[in-house]
Write a structure and sequence with these properties.
alpha/beta; 47% helix
Length: 216
Amino acid sequence: MTTDKSPLHEASGPCYRAVLLVGPPGVGKGTQGKMLSQIPGIFHVSSGDMFRELDRTSKFGQIFQEYAGIGKLVPDDITIKIWQDYMATKVREQTYNSKNDLLILDGIPRNITQANLMAPFVQVFKVIYMVCEDREVMFKRIRGRSLKENRIDDAEELVVRYRWDVYKRETEPLIDYYPQERIRIVDANTLAADVLYQILSTIVPVQKKYFEPPIM
């Protein structure tokens, strides 16, 4: 593991204005995130994309590989520093404009520790809590995704159920962490278009109130 003790990122930084997507594996966060990302004025960031875009020769890329190589999750503090660096890169590339773009965070923060670490850097307007009461429906979705996208690990029943348990233990408590007036429960056991409609009915008023219209 790395022994470099130098700071990975400055302690201070910009504050991003965001909505969180929270829900168990297979609930459809990725599908909704992709659709939302096509709408001008919305910038979607998933933790998976963030890690996949890391330059493997960079400092963060090497740290990620050290943990991933032994099957461990990147520690919370390093994850947030990677996120900060990722956001700074998107600002420099002008693919994200904080004045115009509502940030949709998907998969980050993953737990309350990460939420606390992110608090100085992000203003959370709403938490979209995607709910599907039938676990077997979500497990079926994950298995179908594994075949469609050739994601072999998602086909393993034990892996799928383990990820569900991790979500229940670590991520779902975020719903009680944030003020309840910010929580918007969305029924995810319906048509994808209906789920999108529910999400948009929550985030469009936020966009109108706090953001400048994007240049089309």
